[in-house]
Amino acid sequence: MVLDEKYDVIIVGGGHAGCEAAYSSAKMGANVLLITMNMQTIGQMSCNPAMGGVAKGQIVREIDALGGGSALITDKSMIQFRMLNRSKGPAMWSPRVQSDRMLFAQYWRELLEETPGLNMYQDMVVGLNVSDGTVHGVRTALGLTFEAETVVLTSGTFMNGLIHVGDKNFGGGRAGERASTGITEELVALGFESGRMKTGTPPRIDGRSIDYTVMEEQPGDHNPGQFSFEGNYALEKQRSCWITHTSQEVHDVLKKGFDRSPLFNGSIRGTGPRYCPSIEDKIDRFSEKSSHQIFVEPEGWNTVEVYVNGFSSSLPIEIQHEAIQKVKGFENAKFFRPGYAIEYDYFPPTQLKHTLETKLVSGLYFAGQINGTTGYEEAACQGLMAGVNAVLKTRGDDPFILGRNDAYIGVLIDDLITKGTEEPYRMFTSRAEYRLLLRQDNADIRLAKLGHDIGLVSENRITLLKKKELLILEGNSALDKNLPLPYVNTILESKGERKAAEKIKTAKLVARPNLKLTDFATQFEGQEWWRPDVIEQLEITIKYGGYIQRERENVEKMKRLNNKSIPSSFDYDKVKGLSYEGRDKLKAIEPATIAQASRISGISQSDIHVLLVYMGR
Protein backbone atom coordinates (compact mmCIF):
# COMPACT_ATOMS: atom_id res chain seq x y z
CA MET A 1 0.00 0.00 0.00
CA VAL A 2 1.39 3.41 -1.00
CA LEU A 3 0.61 5.99 1.67
CA ASP A 4 0.52 9.76 1.14
CA GLU A 5 1.96 11.77 -1.70
CA LYS A 6 5.48 11.43 -3.08
CA TYR A 7 8.07 13.23 -0.97
CA ASP A 8 11.21 15.06 -2.02
CA VAL A 9 13.21 13.56 0.84
CA ILE A 10 12.57 10.71 3.29
CA ILE A 11 14.72 10.64 6.43
CA VAL A 12 15.00 7.27 8.18
CA GLY A 13 15.83 7.68 11.88
CA GLY A 14 15.15 10.36 14.49
CA GLY A 15 18.56 10.70 16.16
CA HIS A 16 20.98 13.61 15.84
CA ALA A 17 21.74 12.95 12.17
CA GLY A 18 18.08 12.40 11.36
CA CYS A 19 16.92 15.55 13.15
CA GLU A 20 19.45 17.75 11.33
CA ALA A 21 18.73 16.09 7.98
CA ALA A 22 14.97 16.58 8.39
CA TYR A 23 15.27 20.15 9.70
CA SER A 24 17.71 21.35 7.03
CA SER A 25 15.91 19.75 4.08
CA ALA A 26 12.49 21.07 5.14
CA LYS A 27 13.94 24.50 5.89
CA MET A 28 15.12 24.62 2.28
CA GLY A 29 11.51 24.25 1.18
CA ALA A 30 11.40 20.54 0.41
CA ASN A 31 8.49 18.23 1.19
CA VAL A 32 10.06 15.94 3.82
CA LEU A 33 9.04 12.83 5.74
CA LEU A 34 10.88 11.73 8.87
CA ILE A 35 10.20 8.07 9.71
CA THR A 36 11.32 6.88 13.13
CA MET A 37 10.64 3.74 15.15
CA ASN A 38 9.62 5.75 18.23
CA MET A 39 8.48 9.35 18.11
CA GLN A 40 8.95 9.61 21.88
CA THR A 41 12.73 9.32 21.48
CA ILE A 42 13.35 11.90 18.75
CA GLY A 43 16.55 13.81 19.53
CA GLN A 44 17.46 11.38 22.31
CA MET A 45 20.90 11.69 23.90
CA SER A 46 21.67 7.97 24.00
CA CYS A 47 24.99 8.37 25.77
CA ASN A 48 26.34 11.32 27.77
CA PRO A 49 24.18 14.42 28.31
CA ALA A 50 26.61 16.87 26.71
CA MET A 51 27.37 18.61 23.41
CA GLY A 52 30.67 19.96 22.18
CA GLY A 53 34.17 19.45 23.50
CA VAL A 54 37.52 19.37 21.74
CA ALA A 55 36.87 19.73 17.96
CA LYS A 56 33.23 18.72 18.53
CA GLY A 57 32.44 22.23 19.78
CA GLN A 58 33.79 23.63 16.52
CA ILE A 59 31.44 21.33 14.60
CA VAL A 60 28.38 22.51 16.55
CA ARG A 61 29.33 26.14 15.85
CA GLU A 62 29.69 25.26 12.15
CA ILE A 63 26.27 23.60 12.09
CA ASP A 64 24.83 26.78 13.57
CA ALA A 65 26.64 29.00 11.09
CA LEU A 66 25.16 26.95 8.23
CA GLY A 67 21.64 27.26 9.63
CA GLY A 68 21.24 23.92 11.43
CA GLY A 69 19.41 23.40 14.71
CA SER A 70 21.83 21.67 17.10
CA ALA A 71 23.34 24.83 18.59
CA LEU A 72 19.96 26.42 19.29
CA ILE A 73 18.69 23.23 20.94
CA THR A 74 21.89 22.95 22.98
CA ASP A 75 21.71 26.56 24.18
CA LYS A 76 18.09 26.22 25.26
CA SER A 77 18.73 23.01 27.20
CA MET A 78 22.18 23.68 28.70
CA ILE A 79 22.81 23.49 32.44
CA GLN A 80 26.55 24.28 32.27
CA PHE A 81 28.90 25.97 29.78
CA ARG A 82 32.69 25.65 29.63
CA MET A 83 35.25 26.81 27.08
CA LEU A 84 37.90 24.08 27.07
CA ASN A 85 41.63 24.61 26.42
CA ARG A 86 41.69 28.31 27.23
CA SER A 87 45.32 27.87 28.35
CA LYS A 88 46.25 26.86 24.79
CA GLY A 89 46.10 28.73 21.49
CA PRO A 90 42.76 29.78 19.92
CA ALA A 91 42.81 26.88 17.44
CA MET A 92 42.32 24.59 20.44
CA TRP A 93 39.55 26.53 22.24
CA SER A 94 36.45 24.35 22.22
CA PRO A 95 33.05 25.09 23.78
CA ARG A 96 31.32 22.32 25.71
CA VAL A 97 27.85 22.25 27.23
CA GLN A 98 26.27 19.98 29.81
CA SER A 99 22.67 19.47 28.71
CA ASP A 100 19.37 18.65 30.31
CA ARG A 101 18.72 15.34 28.54
CA MET A 102 14.92 15.55 28.65
CA LEU A 103 14.76 19.20 27.56
CA PHE A 104 17.17 18.53 24.69
CA ALA A 105 14.86 15.90 23.18
CA GLN A 106 11.76 18.00 23.91
CA TYR A 107 13.15 21.08 22.14
CA TRP A 108 14.19 19.05 19.08
CA ARG A 109 10.69 17.60 18.82
CA GLU A 110 9.16 21.07 19.11
CA LEU A 111 11.51 22.54 16.50
CA LEU A 112 10.72 19.78 14.01
CA GLU A 113 6.98 20.09 14.56
CA GLU A 114 7.02 23.83 13.91
CA THR A 115 9.07 23.51 10.68
CA PRO A 116 6.83 23.88 7.58
CA GLY A 117 7.00 21.02 5.10
CA LEU A 118 8.27 18.52 7.67
CA ASN A 119 6.06 15.45 8.23
CA MET A 120 6.67 12.66 10.75
CA TYR A 121 5.55 9.04 10.95
CA GLN A 122 6.24 6.23 13.44
CA ASP A 123 7.15 2.88 11.90
CA MET A 124 10.18 0.69 11.19
CA VAL A 125 11.69 0.94 7.73
CA VAL A 126 12.59 -2.61 6.64
CA GLY A 127 13.51 -2.09 3.00
CA LEU A 128 14.24 0.28 0.14
CA ASN A 129 12.58 0.48 -3.24
CA VAL A 130 15.44 0.51 -5.73
CA SER A 131 15.29 0.04 -9.50
CA ASP A 132 17.75 0.82 -12.28
CA GLY A 133 20.31 1.94 -9.70
CA THR A 134 18.03 4.62 -8.22
CA VAL A 135 16.13 4.73 -4.94
CA HIS A 136 12.40 5.48 -5.17
CA GLY A 137 11.20 5.15 -1.58
CA VAL A 138 11.02 2.90 1.47
CA ARG A 139 8.95 0.01 2.82
CA THR A 140 7.91 -0.33 6.45
CA ALA A 141 7.16 -3.15 8.88
CA LEU A 142 3.45 -2.35 8.66
CA GLY A 143 3.47 -3.09 4.94
CA LEU A 144 3.38 0.53 3.81
CA THR A 145 5.34 2.09 0.96
CA PHE A 146 6.41 5.73 0.97
CA GLU A 147 7.69 7.17 -2.28
CA ALA A 148 10.43 9.79 -2.54
CA GLU A 149 13.04 11.17 -4.91
CA THR A 150 15.78 10.79 -2.31
CA VAL A 151 16.27 8.82 0.91
CA VAL A 152 18.65 9.56 3.82
CA LEU A 153 19.49 6.63 6.12
CA THR A 154 20.46 7.69 9.67
CA SER A 155 20.08 4.40 11.51
CA GLY A 156 22.45 5.03 14.42
CA THR A 157 23.10 1.85 16.41
CA PHE A 158 19.80 0.23 15.46
CA MET A 159 20.60 -1.86 12.37
CA ASN A 160 20.79 -5.42 13.71
CA GLY A 161 21.71 -3.93 17.08
CA LEU A 162 22.80 -6.41 19.75
CA ILE A 163 23.11 -5.34 23.40
CA HIS A 164 25.60 -7.07 25.72
CA VAL A 165 25.58 -7.13 29.54
CA GLY A 166 28.02 -9.72 30.84
CA ASP A 167 27.22 -13.12 29.37
CA LYS A 168 23.70 -11.98 28.42
CA ASN A 169 22.84 -10.41 25.08
CA PHE A 170 19.64 -9.46 23.33
CA GLY A 171 18.54 -7.54 20.26
CA GLY A 172 18.10 -3.81 20.64
CA GLY A 173 19.13 -0.48 19.19
CA ARG A 174 19.18 1.19 22.60
CA ALA A 175 18.23 0.00 26.09
CA GLY A 176 14.49 -0.65 26.09
CA GLU A 177 14.13 -0.28 22.31
CA ARG A 178 14.12 -2.97 19.62
CA ALA A 179 16.67 -3.26 16.84
CA SER A 180 15.97 -2.42 13.20
CA THR A 181 16.12 -5.31 10.74
CA GLY A 182 15.97 -5.81 7.01
CA ILE A 183 17.92 -2.89 5.57
CA THR A 184 21.42 -4.33 5.95
CA GLU A 185 20.56 -7.51 4.11
CA GLU A 186 18.94 -5.56 1.30
CA LEU A 187 21.91 -3.21 0.92
CA VAL A 188 24.35 -6.11 0.87
CA ALA A 189 22.26 -7.74 -1.85
CA LEU A 190 22.62 -4.51 -3.84
CA GLY A 191 26.40 -4.82 -3.62
CA PHE A 192 27.26 -2.77 -0.55
CA GLU A 193 30.01 -3.85 1.86
CA SER A 194 28.95 -3.89 5.52
CA GLY A 195 30.74 -4.32 8.85
CA ARG A 196 30.14 -4.34 12.58
CA MET A 197 31.07 -1.73 15.15
CA LYS A 198 30.61 -1.48 18.87
CA THR A 199 30.05 1.27 21.37
CA GLY A 200 29.05 1.34 25.02
CA THR A 201 27.56 3.35 27.83
CA PRO A 202 28.13 3.51 31.61
CA PRO A 203 25.67 2.83 34.42
CA ARG A 204 23.33 5.63 35.51
CA ILE A 205 23.30 6.34 39.23
CA ASP A 206 20.82 7.84 41.70
CA GLY A 207 22.52 11.12 42.62
CA ARG A 208 20.98 11.03 46.10
CA SER A 209 23.23 8.06 46.88
CA ILE A 210 26.47 9.88 45.94
CA ASP A 211 28.79 11.68 48.38
CA TYR A 212 29.94 14.77 46.46
CA THR A 213 31.90 16.17 49.41
CA VAL A 214 34.83 13.84 48.70
CA MET A 215 34.96 14.74 44.98
CA GLU A 216 36.56 17.61 43.07
CA GLU A 217 33.99 20.12 41.85
CA GLN A 218 34.04 21.15 38.20
CA PRO A 219 31.92 24.31 37.88
CA GLY A 220 30.98 26.08 34.66
CA ASP A 221 32.67 29.23 33.34
CA HIS A 222 32.29 32.38 35.40
CA ASN A 223 30.92 34.20 32.33
CA PRO A 224 29.20 31.40 30.40
CA GLY A 225 28.83 31.72 26.67
CA GLN A 226 26.56 29.97 24.20
CA PHE A 227 26.85 27.94 21.00
CA SER A 228 24.60 29.88 18.66
CA PHE A 229 25.75 33.10 17.01
CA GLU A 230 22.30 34.56 17.54
CA GLY A 231 19.80 34.48 20.38
CA ASN A 232 20.43 35.17 24.05
CA TYR A 233 20.74 32.04 26.15
CA ALA A 234 23.31 33.11 28.73
CA LEU A 235 23.01 31.01 31.89
CA GLU A 236 22.20 32.79 35.13
CA LYS A 237 22.83 29.65 37.16
CA GLN A 238 24.67 26.41 36.40
CA ARG A 239 24.98 22.88 37.71
CA SER A 240 28.44 21.59 38.56
CA CYS A 241 30.04 18.36 37.40
CA TRP A 242 32.38 16.42 39.68
CA ILE A 243 35.59 14.44 39.32
CA THR A 244 36.64 11.30 41.16
CA HIS A 245 38.98 8.40 40.36
CA THR A 246 39.10 4.64 40.22
CA SER A 247 41.70 2.79 42.29
CA GLN A 248 43.60 -0.48 42.18
CA GLU A 249 40.89 -1.96 44.39
CA VAL A 250 38.26 -0.99 41.81
CA HIS A 251 40.36 -2.53 39.04
CA ASP A 252 40.78 -5.78 40.96
CA VAL A 253 37.00 -6.10 41.36
CA LEU A 254 36.43 -5.43 37.66
CA LYS A 255 39.04 -8.02 36.67
CA LYS A 256 37.00 -10.69 38.46
CA GLY A 257 34.42 -10.40 35.69
CA PHE A 258 36.80 -10.37 32.72
CA ASP A 259 36.13 -14.04 31.94
CA ARG A 260 32.44 -13.12 31.53
CA SER A 261 33.15 -9.92 29.60
CA PRO A 262 31.80 -9.96 26.02
CA LEU A 263 34.84 -7.85 25.09
CA PHE A 264 37.25 -10.61 26.04
CA ASN A 265 35.35 -13.87 25.51
CA GLY A 266 34.68 -13.35 21.81
CA SER A 267 31.00 -12.45 22.07
CA ILE A 268 31.61 -9.02 20.55
CA ARG A 269 33.02 -8.97 17.03
CA GLY A 270 32.59 -5.26 16.32
CA THR A 271 35.41 -2.72 16.74
CA GLY A 272 34.98 -0.25 19.59
CA PRO A 273 36.00 3.42 19.84
CA ARG A 274 39.73 3.82 20.48
CA TYR A 275 39.32 7.18 22.20
CA CYS A 276 36.36 6.32 24.40
CA PRO A 277 37.11 2.80 25.67
CA SER A 278 35.18 0.91 28.32
CA ILE A 279 36.59 0.78 31.84
CA GLU A 280 37.56 -2.87 31.39
CA ASP A 281 39.30 -2.04 28.12
CA LYS A 282 41.25 0.78 29.82
CA ILE A 283 42.37 -1.54 32.61
CA ASP A 284 43.49 -4.15 30.08
CA ARG A 285 45.26 -1.75 27.69
CA PHE A 286 46.82 0.47 30.37
CA SER A 287 47.63 -2.14 32.98
CA GLU A 288 50.42 0.01 34.38
CA LYS A 289 47.88 2.62 35.58
CA SER A 290 46.34 2.17 39.01
CA SER A 291 43.76 4.94 38.58
CA HIS A 292 41.52 6.46 35.91
CA GLN A 293 39.50 9.70 36.01
CA ILE A 294 35.73 9.54 36.39
CA PHE A 295 33.50 12.50 35.51
CA VAL A 296 30.21 12.67 37.38
CA GLU A 297 27.69 14.51 35.18
CA PRO A 298 24.13 15.56 36.13
CA GLU A 299 21.48 14.66 33.55
CA GLY A 300 19.32 17.76 33.96
CA TRP A 301 17.87 20.48 36.15
CA ASN A 302 15.09 18.45 37.72
CA THR A 303 16.41 14.91 37.95
CA VAL A 304 18.72 13.10 40.35
CA GLU A 305 19.97 10.77 37.62
CA VAL A 306 23.73 10.95 37.09
CA TYR A 307 25.91 9.89 34.15
CA VAL A 308 29.21 8.27 35.19
CA ASN A 309 31.49 9.37 32.36
CA GLY A 310 34.59 7.16 32.13
CA PHE A 311 32.96 4.04 33.56
CA SER A 312 31.43 2.60 30.41
CA SER A 313 31.10 -1.16 30.87
CA SER A 314 29.50 -4.35 29.56
CA LEU A 315 30.56 -6.49 32.51
CA PRO A 316 27.97 -8.46 34.49
CA ILE A 317 25.68 -6.21 36.53
CA GLU A 318 26.87 -7.52 39.88
CA ILE A 319 30.50 -6.77 38.94
CA GLN A 320 29.61 -3.25 37.79
CA HIS A 321 27.73 -2.67 41.04
CA GLU A 322 30.46 -4.01 43.31
CA ALA A 323 33.20 -2.10 41.50
CA ILE A 324 31.47 1.27 41.41
CA GLN A 325 30.86 1.12 45.15
CA LYS A 326 34.65 0.99 45.57
CA VAL A 327 34.99 4.36 43.80
CA LYS A 328 35.44 7.33 46.11
CA GLY A 329 32.06 9.01 46.64
CA PHE A 330 30.09 6.04 45.28
CA GLU A 331 30.27 3.84 48.37
CA ASN A 332 26.48 3.80 48.70
CA ALA A 333 25.65 4.15 45.01
CA LYS A 334 22.29 2.91 43.76
CA PHE A 335 21.82 1.91 40.13
CA PHE A 336 19.11 3.38 37.95
CA ARG A 337 20.36 1.25 35.04
CA PRO A 338 23.52 -0.71 34.29
CA GLY A 339 26.08 -0.04 31.61
CA TYR A 340 26.07 -2.10 28.42
CA ALA A 341 27.82 -2.50 25.06
CA ILE A 342 26.01 -2.51 21.75
CA GLU A 343 27.05 -3.93 18.39
CA TYR A 344 25.51 -2.63 15.18
CA ASP A 345 25.93 -2.66 11.41
CA TYR A 346 27.75 0.08 9.53
CA PHE A 347 28.82 0.60 5.93
CA PRO A 348 32.42 1.65 5.17
CA PRO A 349 32.11 5.27 4.01
CA THR A 350 34.47 4.88 1.07
CA GLN A 351 31.29 3.73 -0.70
CA LEU A 352 30.02 7.33 -0.62
CA LYS A 353 30.57 10.51 -2.62
CA HIS A 354 31.51 13.75 -0.86
CA THR A 355 27.81 14.65 -0.87
CA LEU A 356 27.22 11.53 1.30
CA GLU A 357 25.25 10.01 -1.58
CA THR A 358 26.11 6.36 -2.19
CA LYS A 359 28.07 5.49 -5.31
CA LEU A 360 25.99 2.38 -5.98
CA VAL A 361 22.46 3.80 -5.63
CA SER A 362 21.52 7.23 -6.93
CA GLY A 363 19.47 9.35 -4.51
CA LEU A 364 20.42 7.27 -1.44
CA TYR A 365 22.39 9.05 1.31
CA PHE A 366 24.01 7.78 4.52
CA ALA A 367 24.61 9.94 7.59
CA GLY A 368 25.81 9.31 11.15
CA GLN A 369 26.90 6.06 12.74
CA ILE A 370 25.95 4.10 9.63
CA ASN A 371 29.14 5.67 8.20
CA GLY A 372 31.31 4.48 11.09
CA THR A 373 31.42 7.68 13.13
CA THR A 374 30.80 8.15 16.84
CA GLY A 375 29.42 11.20 18.63
CA TYR A 376 26.33 13.39 18.46
CA GLU A 377 28.19 16.23 16.78
CA GLU A 378 29.75 14.09 14.05
CA ALA A 379 26.32 12.59 13.32
CA ALA A 380 24.51 15.92 13.30
CA CYS A 381 26.82 17.59 10.79
CA GLN A 382 26.55 14.61 8.43
CA GLY A 383 22.78 14.77 8.72
CA LEU A 384 22.78 18.43 7.77
CA MET A 385 25.04 17.86 4.76
CA ALA A 386 23.08 14.81 3.57
CA GLY A 387 19.77 16.63 3.94
CA VAL A 388 21.03 19.66 2.01
CA ASN A 389 22.48 17.59 -0.81
CA ALA A 390 19.37 15.43 -1.06
CA VAL A 391 17.29 18.55 -1.69
CA LEU A 392 19.79 19.97 -4.17
CA LYS A 393 19.70 16.69 -6.10
CA THR A 394 15.91 16.83 -6.41
CA ARG A 395 16.29 20.31 -7.91
CA GLY A 396 19.10 19.37 -10.26
CA ASP A 397 21.36 21.95 -8.60
CA ASP A 398 25.08 21.68 -7.96
CA PRO A 399 25.98 19.75 -4.78
CA PHE A 400 27.08 21.48 -1.58
CA ILE A 401 30.55 20.30 -0.55
CA LEU A 402 32.81 21.81 2.10
CA GLY A 403 36.57 21.52 1.69
CA ARG A 404 39.13 20.74 4.37
CA ASN A 405 40.02 24.43 4.45
CA ASP A 406 36.37 25.45 4.86
CA ALA A 407 35.25 23.59 7.97
CA TYR A 408 35.81 20.70 10.36
CA ILE A 409 32.73 19.26 8.66
CA GLY A 410 34.72 19.20 5.43
CA VAL A 411 37.63 17.47 7.17
CA LEU A 412 35.34 14.83 8.67
CA ILE A 413 33.59 13.95 5.42
CA ASP A 414 36.82 13.97 3.40
CA ASP A 415 38.49 11.68 5.96
CA LEU A 416 35.58 9.24 5.78
CA ILE A 417 35.36 9.21 1.98
CA THR A 418 39.06 9.05 1.18
CA LYS A 419 40.47 7.07 4.11
CA GLY A 420 37.50 5.11 5.40
CA THR A 421 37.47 3.92 8.99
CA GLU A 422 37.76 0.54 10.67
CA GLU A 423 36.90 1.89 14.13
CA PRO A 424 34.35 4.49 15.27
CA TYR A 425 35.61 7.80 13.88
CA ARG A 426 35.82 10.73 16.27
CA MET A 427 36.85 14.27 15.35
CA PHE A 428 39.96 15.85 16.91
CA THR A 429 41.63 19.19 16.27
CA SER A 430 44.73 17.25 15.17
CA ARG A 431 42.83 15.87 12.17
CA ALA A 432 42.48 19.38 10.69
CA GLU A 433 45.64 20.67 9.02
CA TYR A 434 44.17 24.20 8.86
CA ARG A 435 42.82 24.30 12.41
CA LEU A 436 44.01 27.86 13.06
CA LEU A 437 41.69 28.99 10.26
CA LEU A 438 38.85 26.69 11.38
CA ARG A 439 38.33 28.16 14.84
CA GLN A 440 35.07 28.01 16.78
CA ASP A 441 34.91 31.81 17.07
CA ASN A 442 34.91 32.52 13.31
CA ALA A 443 32.53 29.78 12.10
CA ASP A 444 29.89 32.39 11.25
CA ILE A 445 32.33 34.43 9.17
CA ARG A 446 33.46 31.28 7.34
CA LEU A 447 30.11 29.64 6.67
CA ALA A 448 27.02 31.80 7.19
CA LYS A 449 27.05 33.24 3.67
CA LEU A 450 27.32 29.71 2.25
CA GLY A 451 24.35 28.71 4.42
CA HIS A 452 22.42 31.69 3.07
CA ASP A 453 23.19 30.73 -0.54
CA ILE A 454 21.57 27.30 -0.07
CA GLY A 455 18.54 28.73 1.75
CA LEU A 456 19.28 27.78 5.37
CA VAL A 457 20.44 31.11 6.82
CA SER A 458 18.03 34.04 7.03
CA GLU A 459 18.59 37.50 5.59
CA ASN A 460 18.46 38.94 9.10
CA ARG A 461 21.34 36.66 10.14
CA ILE A 462 23.42 37.90 7.19
CA THR A 463 22.65 41.50 8.13
CA LEU A 464 23.99 40.83 11.64
CA LEU A 465 27.08 39.16 10.18
CA LYS A 466 27.79 42.10 7.86
CA LYS A 467 27.48 44.44 10.84
CA LYS A 468 29.99 42.33 12.77
CA GLU A 469 32.43 42.36 9.83
CA LEU A 470 32.09 46.15 9.58
CA LEU A 471 32.83 46.53 13.28
CA ILE A 472 35.93 44.35 12.90
CA LEU A 473 37.17 46.71 10.18
CA GLU A 474 36.49 49.70 12.43
CA GLY A 475 38.34 48.02 15.26
CA ASN A 476 41.33 47.26 13.06
CA SER A 477 41.43 50.89 11.99
CA ALA A 478 41.32 52.10 15.58
CA LEU A 479 44.08 49.72 16.65
CA ASP A 480 46.32 50.88 13.81
CA LYS A 481 46.75 54.28 15.47
CA ASN A 482 49.25 55.45 18.08
CA LEU A 483 48.21 55.83 21.70
CA PRO A 484 49.37 58.68 23.97
CA LEU A 485 52.79 57.76 25.36
CA PRO A 486 52.00 58.47 29.04
CA TYR A 487 48.91 56.24 28.80
CA VAL A 488 50.91 53.43 27.16
CA ASN A 489 53.71 53.59 29.72
CA THR A 490 51.28 53.46 32.62
CA ILE A 491 49.90 50.17 31.28
CA LEU A 492 53.33 48.77 30.43
CA GLU A 493 54.58 49.56 33.92
CA SER A 494 51.56 47.84 35.51
CA LYS A 495 52.37 44.71 33.48
CA GLY A 496 56.06 44.72 34.41
CA GLU A 497 57.05 45.69 30.86
CA ARG A 498 59.77 48.15 29.86
CA LYS A 499 58.47 51.66 29.14
CA ALA A 500 58.22 52.78 25.51
CA ALA A 501 60.54 55.55 24.31
CA GLU A 502 58.35 56.60 21.39
CA LYS A 503 54.77 56.36 20.21
CA ILE A 504 53.52 52.88 19.34
CA LYS A 505 50.39 51.50 17.68
CA THR A 506 47.88 49.63 19.82
CA ALA A 507 48.06 46.57 17.55
CA LYS A 508 51.80 46.23 18.14
CA LEU A 509 51.25 46.43 21.88
CA VAL A 510 48.51 43.79 21.80
CA ALA A 511 50.86 41.51 19.83
CA ARG A 512 53.02 41.20 22.94
CA PRO A 513 52.46 37.97 24.92
CA ASN A 514 51.77 39.70 28.24
CA LEU A 515 49.29 42.24 26.92
CA LYS A 516 45.63 41.84 26.01
CA LEU A 517 43.30 44.12 24.10
CA THR A 518 41.14 44.49 27.20
CA ASP A 519 44.13 46.10 28.98
CA PHE A 520 43.36 49.16 26.86
CA ALA A 521 39.64 49.19 27.62
CA THR A 522 39.63 52.74 29.00
CA GLN A 523 40.84 54.01 25.62
CA PHE A 524 38.16 52.30 23.53
CA GLU A 525 35.13 51.63 25.75
CA GLY A 526 32.01 53.26 24.38
CA GLN A 527 33.03 52.80 20.75
CA GLU A 528 30.56 50.70 18.79
CA TRP A 529 33.10 48.05 17.83
CA TRP A 530 34.09 47.42 21.47
CA ARG A 531 32.06 44.29 22.12
CA PRO A 532 33.21 40.78 23.19
CA ASP A 533 32.91 38.91 19.87
CA VAL A 534 34.69 41.64 17.92
CA ILE A 535 37.41 42.02 20.57
CA GLU A 536 38.06 38.27 20.41
CA GLN A 537 38.41 38.32 16.61
CA LEU A 538 40.75 41.32 16.67
CA GLU A 539 43.03 39.92 19.36
CA ILE A 540 43.37 36.51 17.71
CA THR A 541 44.17 38.11 14.35
CA ILE A 542 46.83 40.34 15.94
CA LYS A 543 48.54 37.72 18.07
CA TYR A 544 48.47 34.90 15.53
CA GLY A 545 48.55 36.88 12.28
CA GLY A 546 51.79 35.35 10.99
CA TYR A 547 50.62 31.78 11.59
CA ILE A 548 47.22 32.51 10.05
CA GLN A 549 48.85 33.95 6.91
CA ARG A 550 51.06 30.88 6.59
CA GLU A 551 48.03 28.58 6.75
CA ARG A 552 46.27 30.67 4.10
CA GLU A 553 49.27 30.24 1.81
CA ASN A 554 49.14 26.48 2.37
CA VAL A 555 45.45 26.53 1.48
CA GLU A 556 46.24 28.26 -1.82
CA LYS A 557 48.82 25.58 -2.64
CA MET A 558 46.27 22.85 -1.97
CA LYS A 559 43.65 24.65 -4.04
CA ARG A 560 45.97 24.42 -7.04
CA LEU A 561 45.99 20.64 -6.58
CA ASN A 562 42.21 20.63 -6.12
CA ASN A 563 41.89 22.41 -9.45
CA LYS A 564 43.48 19.39 -11.12
CA SER A 565 40.34 17.30 -11.46
CA ILE A 566 40.27 13.60 -12.32
CA PRO A 567 37.51 12.56 -14.76
CA SER A 568 35.03 10.06 -13.33
CA SER A 569 35.79 7.73 -16.26
CA PHE A 570 39.55 7.87 -15.70
CA ASP A 571 41.24 4.53 -16.45
CA TYR A 572 43.95 3.94 -13.83
CA ASP A 573 44.97 0.68 -15.52
CA LYS A 574 46.53 2.73 -18.32
CA VAL A 575 48.81 4.62 -15.94
CA LYS A 576 52.15 2.81 -15.88
CA GLY A 577 54.21 3.25 -12.74
CA LEU A 578 51.36 3.28 -10.21
CA SER A 579 51.85 0.90 -7.28
CA TYR A 580 49.48 -2.07 -7.15
CA GLU A 581 48.02 -0.80 -3.86
CA GLY A 582 47.71 2.74 -5.20
CA ARG A 583 45.91 1.58 -8.34
CA ASP A 584 43.46 -0.55 -6.32
CA LYS A 585 42.70 2.28 -3.86
CA LEU A 586 42.22 4.86 -6.63
CA LYS A 587 39.87 2.56 -8.54
CA ALA A 588 37.85 1.80 -5.41
CA ILE A 589 37.48 5.37 -4.11
CA GLU A 590 37.42 7.26 -7.45
CA PRO A 591 38.82 10.60 -6.15
CA ALA A 592 37.54 13.71 -7.88
CA THR A 593 40.81 15.67 -7.63
CA ILE A 594 44.55 15.11 -7.27
CA ALA A 595 44.37 16.64 -3.79
CA GLN A 596 41.76 14.12 -2.70
CA ALA A 597 43.81 11.29 -4.20
CA SER A 598 46.85 12.40 -2.18
CA ARG A 599 44.91 11.93 1.08
CA ILE A 600 43.86 8.33 0.44
CA SER A 601 45.49 5.89 2.83
CA GLY A 602 47.98 3.78 0.87
CA ILE A 603 48.61 6.36 -1.87
CA SER A 604 52.28 7.38 -1.94
CA GLN A 605 53.75 10.64 -3.17
CA SER A 606 55.34 8.70 -6.05
CA ASP A 607 51.83 7.57 -7.09
CA ILE A 608 50.71 11.21 -7.12
CA HIS A 609 53.77 12.22 -9.14
CA VAL A 610 53.07 9.48 -11.70
CA LEU A 611 49.44 10.64 -11.94
CA LEU A 612 50.45 14.28 -12.45
CA VAL A 613 52.96 13.36 -15.16
CA TYR A 614 50.40 11.15 -16.94
CA MET A 615 47.67 13.81 -16.77
CA GLY A 616 50.13 16.46 -17.92
CA ARG A 617 50.62 14.50 -21.11
CATH architecture of the domain at 459-549: Orthogonal Bundle
As a percent range, the share of strand residues is: 15-25%
Distance between the termini: 57 Å
Class by SSE composition:
alpha+beta
* Rg (C-alpha, Å): 26 Å
Structure annotation, total helices: 20
Which shape, going by the Cα principal axes?
A: globular
CATH topology of the domain at 459-549: Arc Repressor Mutant, subunit A
Instruction: Flag low-confidence runs.
Output: none
The total strand number stands at: 20
Mean pLDDT: 93
Main beta sheet strand tally, sense and closure: 7 strands, mixed
Which bin fits the share of residues in helices?
25-40%
Quick one: CATH superfamily of the domain at 459-549?
A: tRNA uridine 5-carboxymethylaminomethyl modification enzyme MnmG/GidA
The CATH C-level class name of the domain at 459-549: Mainly Alpha
Sequence-ordered SSE layout with sheet pairings:
Blueprint: E1 7-12, H1 16-27, E2 32-36, E3 50-52, H2 56-66, H3 70-77, E4 78-84, E5 94-99, H4 101-113, E6 118-122, E7 125-131, E8 134-140, E9 145-153, E10 162-165, E11 168-171, H5 183-189, E12 195-201, E13 204-206, E14 216-218, E15 241-245, H6 248-255, H7 279-285, E16 293-298, E17 305-309, H8 317-324, E18 335-337, E19 340-346, E20 364-366, H9 376-395, H10 408-419, H11 443-453, H12 459-479, H13 485-494, H14 506-510, H15 521-524, H16 532-543, H17 545-562, H18 580-589, H19 594-598, H20 605-616
Parallel strand pairs: 1-2, 1-9, 2-6, 9-20
Antiparallel strand pairs: 3-5, 4-5, 7-8, 8-9, 10-11, 10-19, 12-19, 13-17, 13-18, 14-15, 15-16, 16-17
Helix pairs in contact: 1-9, 2-9, 2-11, 3-4, 6-8, 11-12, 12-16
